[in-house]
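Let's do one together. I've listed all components of the complex below, 656 residues spread over two lines.
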Amino acid sequence: MIIDLETLRKTSVSALLNLTGPDHAAQQIDLLLDADLRGISSHGVLRLPRIAQRIRNGVTDPSQTGCHNWRGEGFLQVDGKRGLGPVVANAAIAALEDRVRRTGVAMAAITNSNHIGMLGYYCEAAALKGLSMIALSTSEALVHPWGGRRAMIGTNPVAIGLPVGGGEIFMMDTATGLVSMGEIHDHANRSVPIPEGWALDGEGRPTTDAEAAKSGAIAPFGGPKGYALGLAFELLVSSLADAAIGRDVTGTLDDDTICNKGDVFILADGPVADMRPYLDAIRSEMPAEGFDRVLIPGERGRASRKTRAAAGIDLPETLWGDIRNLAG
Amino acid sequence: MIIDLETLRKTSVSALLNLTGPDHAAQQIDLLLDADLRGISSHGVLRLPRIAQRIRNGVTDPSQTGCHNWRGEGFLQVDGKRGLGPVVANAAIAALEDRVRRTGVAMAAITNSNHIGMLGYYCEAAALKGLSMIALSTSEALVHPWGGRRAMIGTNPVAIGLPVGGGEIFMMDTATGLVSMGEIHDHANRSVPIPEGWALDGEGRPTTDAEAAKSGAIAPFGGPKGYALGLAFELLVSSLADAAIGRDVTGTLDDDTICNKGDVFILADGPVADMRPYLDAIRSEMPAEGFDRVLIPGERGRASRKTRAAAGIDLPETLWGDIRNLAG
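Okay, and this is what the predicted structure of the assembly comes out as:
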């Protein structure tokens, strides 16, 4: 069913208001709604019941904003104190935004914080302030090493945002797994096979059975290159953030374990070049056979956001019921 | 023919000694030899005749180390003054290594410098000093946007290095193109077709004809995800380094145009966790069907280096002749 954006926002915030204050509730909900607006429902209010349950179970402490420790003038280490992911992330980024005007580059490495949602949300906000940003995050091990059989690496997304001139921005956001576990679950729910090459089953054999893939491992995107990149992010984030690694990572997919993954943000206050003519040139390229047009990453999401902000957000009836129940 | 490493080093350095001083010559040759030692001959002494010719043609000034301008305490902007790529890169990294002990993170953005070779060379050196490093570089447009027909994006490599405990390091280095133009030329030279999906011809049609692909465009690795990443690197590096973008980039593949691409290095002085048990676990995973074992990126290259340092480097006879002629 289609829910009006402001109704959904108000009800979703209410769902957290008996668990935390209005500011932290609003930050968490704004992040989730942005994903729904872009059409990335896997990172949207779908996650709200679990977020609430984690607070009730004591593995998330929604009052926290994180404890900041500057290891150097530009390097902020953050103990998230089990805070809400976006609350801890926003506080860290605010500290970096302040610092980077003087240092030119600043980095935060965060652990002991909860799921921070779509990384592109933060990169887009920084880009709109004229800053370039690289965001990395680790997750539960769901991806197999290239040539391996078991999930040993997180889906480790990377997002990059920057201003491109005239107040416009570029933002891309992608996981280093070929697909998300959500897409595999979605195929399983619809009893539809998954394409070859997406995943291995629990014994590490290639499978097109979505149900079997649920207990297996997702392929890295782009074969050995994507494996190398995903593994590098795993090592870099775990090391800089002093976070758990590989199969030891917990707490982004369940209700009752402490979240011990890491997040790394790098902000740069650089010159802003006008790169709109370059992006226009790509946009207006003649598309290859089988394509309608050449897309710029992030733009489809922003177009969706405009449409859905006006027309409302389509939610499964049961989810909307759950959110209203949480709101009491 | 097999050339002993020290003979090759001495002769190659000599080839530059009538064009520049011994220190800059040694830096350039060390970079090239490291690629040959790892088995990446496309980035090895194969490039020496072109490097010498560029100096003779005045588009490279081998006496320069680059002009340093700190935009902030951690952000070094470098005008390479047409210097040799590795000489300018090494000077920038030395400045960052000094600065990062205080700031925790430091970044250099370089333009007006020549080809810096294998990015992993720099990341490995930083990792051995206990620092984490991300290196990005742009290049001539050789890669087509996902769904496009023409080369609009560089092969834009990324390398990441970091210490993993006990004096050991991790290093990965990959281009965001599916293959290198060198591999396509190699297929053309051997009159062997290229696999489907590697490249488009000059009209933007999929081709397996290596000769036709030479004037066409390489696919991004990993489809739309690799396209997004390669484009993000193009925009980020061009913006931070104030370098040329897209089809305006010149000077890494010819003898006579000024090199106007950009390089970005980010160094971090973070905590060093012992991640060797995690890497050991990946290494000892049971390989999937069709694989001998699970590899850790960078390790095959380091093993090759050991072997070749002892046994010598295999060079085409004509190349060895060219280098000896240059050495006079």
